[in-house]
Amino acid sequence: MPSTPVVCAAASLRPIKVGGVAPFTATDFPGALAAVVFVQGCPWRCGYCHNTHLQPRTRAGAVPWTDVMRLLARRTGLIDAVVFSGGEPTADPALGPAIGDVRALGFKVGLHSAGTHPRRFAQLLPLLDWVGLDIKAPFTDYERVTRVRDSGTSARRSLEALLASDVDYECRTTAHPALLSETDLLVLARTLANLGVKKYALQLFRKQGSRDAQLNAISLAGYPSESVLDEMRGRFLSFDVRRG
User: Fold this and answer.
1) Which of 2, 45, 53, 77 is the most buried (most CB within 10 A)?
2) CATH code (residue 93)
3) Res. 1: pLDDT tops 90
4) Which string of DSSP letters, residue by residue, matches the chain?
């Protein structure tokens, strides 16, 4: 029997630039089996980034969007959702049409983002079922992590748009003592709680995949202290610590 043709709105415009696809994951969309589409491009240069190969945008992308759609069509009935990750998915102007293509297949859609492009992020929220938003640092100290001036303004605007929506979400922060002191963590927790964040996760730095020799050389033993974690935990409806 011939396969059903796959219509790709995203391919009829400027194609989304895909760096790779993970056909199955049980951890990237809460409570759902999903595939992950990794989108090329990110304007920030965080030292702990595990996907530095996705920061540049190549001319054509590594995987044609039509090929991605054919793969996802074959996953219908096997997975529940598709997550756009990166890189930074909102850096790609074709993300909206790509999300529309995925929804047309019947999948829920998730987004992993750092909020680099707040206007596009806000426009996409009505198309999303879940968002994992990376919060890098206290908003006035973002450059310490991203190495880009005024990046905290974009992140805060994206967070405010997310909290004003009805989209399910998780905010999460990667913690390393060279980038975020325990005082920084407490300041950030208070700030997020005061803004209305209910679901928050602290992800402790992992060496695997990081190309930053200075960060890799520093021990995380005893960081953060249990007293700091307890204080942070008390500020959120849901708080998780991920150690690797």
Assistant:
1) 53
2) 3.20.20.70
3) no
4) -PPPP---HHHHSS---EEEEEEEESSSSTTS-EEEEEEP--S---TT-S-GGGSS--SS-SB-HHHHHHHHHHHBTTBSEEEEEES-GGG-TTHHHHHHHHHHTT-EEEEEE--SSHHHHHHHGGG-SEEEEE--S-GGGTHHHH-STTHHHHHHHHHHHHHHS--EEEEEEEE-TTT--HHHHHHHHHHHHHHT--EEEEEE---TT---HHHHTS--TT-S-HHHHHHHHTT-SEEEEE--
